[in-house]
Amino acid sequence: MARALALRSDFSAAELRRLARRSRDAAQARRLLALGAIYDGGTRSEAAQLGNVTLQIVRDWVVRFNSEGPDGLRDRKATGPMPRLSDAHRQALAAQIDHGPIPAIHGVVRWRLCDLGQWLWEEFRVSVSMQTLSREVRSLGYRKLTARPKHHAQADGAINTFKKKFPATLAGIAREQGLGLDAVEIWFADEARIGQKNGITRRWARRGTRPSAPQDQRYASTYIFGAVCPHLGKGAALVLPFCNTTAMNLHLAEISETVGTAKHAVLLLDQAGWHLSGDVAVPDNITLLPLPPKCPELNVMENIWQFMRDNWLSNRVFQDYNDIVEHCCHHWNRLINQPWRIMSIGMRQWAHGF
Fold first, then answer.
1. DSSP per residue over 226-288, as a string?
2. Residue 153's Cα: distance from chain center in Å?
3. Percentage, residues of the chain above pLDDT 70
4. How far is the C-alpha of 167 from the C-alpha of 350, rounded, in Å?
5. Are 257 and 238 in contact (CB under 8 A)?
6. Which residues fall within 8 angstroms of residue 141, CB to CB, at 6 or more apart?
7. Which of 116, 158, 251, 335 is the least crowded, having the fewest Cβ atoms under 10 Å away?
8. Using CA atoms, how far apart are residues 122 and 129, in angstroms rounded to an integer?
9. What gap in Å lies between CA 9 and CA 66, rounded to an integer?
10. Measured on CA atoms in the order 66, 69, 72, 73, is the torsion positive or negative?
């Protein structure tokens, strides 16, 4: 039989009872009172009866109390099982996600959890469940996000070069207009085609099912000529039947009316033919600034269109052309009435953070 351990001598029964009264941890208070009974000359069996535990547990309390004092009698968080992935595994996993799959090698064009699990097994002989792998991937800061469009023929470094030069370009436009930078509004413009042959977006549904959504095969459509000023949360748009220079002129006139008094707008837009045609009538309070070719990710309007399609304009059937126009007008006005949403979607560090 194991020899009884002596309690440390720098505490007394009265002190343990005082600590028990002040403790907000019921389990710690019960253990302090049990050890206090031993300090008073009671037996270990009496302490076990007082604490409603076995003699071995009382011995464990004594060991912890002698080693750590009263704090040693608090409940400790269970360590749980050893994680399946080490830090080296996590670093390799993050590098593989960032690099992306090689279709000819991995057989897929995007990583799924099952693909990453197979890769971990092939590389490290580590088997991880989908739930555990999902938790690990999320803890590394990854989320499943919609991919940003990138043109296959985009010039290397075109986006970074444009961003670096943008402050100087904006300052040069302000000097030409005889204005300070605070009098320049930064706008983004683009067009979106909305038609009866509509898109279908993701939606919540029960696992194992495939939800359905209405889809039309007719071809009536119209165009939203839209522009926003993210810094001020305002915008201007026209819903027009054609996408040409005449429609562009009407849109520029609409934007001009929305620009603030004594302000000048720098309008960033892509290099479509009807944007930069010699027949485009640019108002005096607007300067057109073409974006680099094949760089749609620089245009805030791409994100505006994505938001409107995903939340307002998809998964529905339009009865006719007038119905399309009515919905486009209604939802653009709905966007304009939410300036905070325009700011949230459209603010960019490279355009507004200097």
1. EEEETTTTEEEEEEES--SHHHHHHHHHHHHHHSPTT-EEEEEE---HHHH-TT----TTEEE
2. 28
3. 98
4. 8
5. no
6. none
7. 158
8. 15
9. 9
10. positive
Look up the pTM and report it: 0.67
Residue 274: how many other CB atoms lie within 10 Å: 18
CB 302 within 8 A of CB 276: no
Q: Mean per-residue pLDDT for 297-306?
A: 94
| Rounded Cα distance, 38 and 95, in Å | 58
pLDDT tens across 307-352, in order? 999 899 988 889 999 999 999 999 999 999 999 999 999 999 999 9
Q: Report the alpha-carbon distance of residue 316 to residue 214 in Å, rounded.
A: 6
Please answer whether residues 243 and 274 qualify as being in contact, where contact means their C-beta atoms are separated by less than 8 angstroms. Answer: yes
Residue with tokens 């940003």: 148
CB atoms within 10 A of CB 252: 23
pLDDT in tens, 28-73: 999 999 999 999 888 888 888 888 899 899 999 999 999 999 998 9
Residue 120 token pair: 């971990």
Strand partners, 189: 227
209-218 burial, b at 16+ Cβ within 10 Å, e below that, comes to eeeeeeeeee
Collapsed DSSP state (helix, strand, coil) of residue 43 = coil
| Strand 221-229 versus strand 184-195 pairing type | antiparallel
- Token pair recorded at residue 152: 């296959």
Residue 289, strand partner residues: 268
70: tokens are 């009263």
